[in-house]
Amino acid sequence: MEQDGKSKIATYHASVRPPSQPVDLVGMDEEELVSLCGEMGEPPYRGRQIFSWLYAQGVSEFSRMTNISKGFRAKLGEAARLETLELDRESKSSDGTEKYLWRLRDGARVESVRIPMKNVNGVMRWSLCVSTQVGCAMGCAFCLTAKMGFIRQLSAGEIVGQFLAARNLLAPGERFHNIVFMGMGEPLDNFDATVKAVRILTHPQANGVSPRRLTVSTVGIASRLKDFVSAVPGVGLAVSLHAADDETRGKLVPVNRKWNLGALLDECRELPMGERRRITFEYVMLRGVNDSGQDAKTLSNLLKGLKCKVNLIPWNPFPGVAFERPGDDRVEAFRRILLSAGVVATTRVSKGSDILAACGQLADPRQVTEKTGLTTS
Ligand code: SAH
Fold first, then answer.
1. Exactly one of 129, 136, 140, 359 is catalytic; which is it?
2. What is the pTM assigned to this prediction?
3. Smallest Cα–Cα separation from 243: which of 261, 255, 257, 225?
4. What is d(CA 377, CA 103) in angstroms, rounded to the nearest whole number?
5. C-alpha distances in angstroms, 5 versus 14, 147, 229, 281?
């Protein structure tokens, strides 16, 4: 019998339709890997072996999973994908900081930064700063990432992938001692992927870091804070405060119009932080905007009774905005007022500013140029 036009097309499509898309392994947690292996007729320990190959060993080819049979590796190779991030550009700062621009599968680009930090004994340790979104929707006035706008969320695999790819670039025997989620994007605006990535990176079998060596920085989405701290207990939390009054904060950090200082700090007071943990409040210092002695006094009053520390971040400049970085003496005077009011306060030594790798200087240069006309590199 003759087929009508429609069913001919349907038959054609059925015959050329590609097999269903392979699943991405990077970004799967142990439970998901165990259940994927179960679906493929393998015992649970196979999933745990793959977890370790992916994250502890960081292999990028199935053929290197040597304790898994050739037959199953071949099946896995058909059903799943093992992707690593492609390094688009690498920049090296005179202070030893390195910035990586990664190209993602769809062509989007994000940055990570590896930073040499001396510990209290003067021993050099690497920290890694990762991004959680392509761009950012928060619109903070003094941040370069904000200038590219929000493009898309990163998957857990793309967040963890930054760690895996950056770890591959370390010298033999080196490792990351700290991981901070302080790159492009707002982690709590990409809640599920951030939580999943944090859990993978702090998993004892992943060879990442212990929870207390991982810190997530948020603009202060008050409604998500408690859920976040409960989801990943023991992980460091940094909250971007940046001003001691709502008028100033409203101008710098637009989310303050939704959750103002009162609402945010009330939430912070209620957080189940655990015995030894303090919240870090970040405070970007902008000359003539939020750096006066009065601001320091208002800030210390605001934080009374909160188990916290303040981290002052002298503004890292980039072209096209009217802010200025205050002098070191101003920053130190501000810090001393906080200290004398009993508030623990440190100043962040920003690294990598000569290659736009310091806090708030990360972006996809192409996107910034397209959106603002500015050239940043
Ligand atoms: N979205 C997260 C992570 C941002 S980056 C957050 O808002 O916390 C980490 C810190 O750097 C934040 O406190 C952020 O406000 C700050 N920051 C952004 N731009 C900066 C700049 N140009 N100079 C110094 N700090 C900046």
1. 359
2. 0.92
3. 261
4. 17
5. 14, 51, 58, 66
Tokens of 152: 């898309």
Q: How far is CA 117 from the centre of its chain?
A: 18
Report the distance separating Cα 132 and Cα 117, nearest Å: 22
Burial 17-37 (b: 16+ CB within 10 A, else e): eeeeeeebbbbbbbeebbebb
Classified as helix, coil or strand, 258 is: coil
Q: What distance in Å separates the CA atoms of residue 205 and residue 365, rounded to the nearest whole number?
A: 36
Structure confidence by residue, pLDDT tens digits, 132-172: 999 999 999 999 999 999 999 999 999 999 999 999 999 99
111 is annotated as an active-site residue: yes
Q: Look at the block and give the residue holding tokens 């970085």.
A: 325
Instruction: Write the pLDDT tens digit of every residue in 69-103.
Output: 999 999 999 999 998 999 999 999 999 999 999 99
In the structure, what pLDDT confidence band is assigned to residue 122 with cuts at 50, 70 and 90? confident
CA 318 from chain centre, in angstroms, equals 21
- Among 117, 86, 173, smallest CA distance to 352 is for 117
For the cut 70, the answer to whether the pLDDT of residue 15 exceeds it is no
Q: Tell the burial category of 317 from Cβ atoms under 10 Å away from its Cβ (0-12, 13-18, 19+).
A: middle
Q: How far apart are CA 240 and CA 271, in angstroms?
A: 16
Ligand 1 mean position to 284 CA, how many Å? Answer: 7
Nearest CA to ligand 1 atom 15: 240
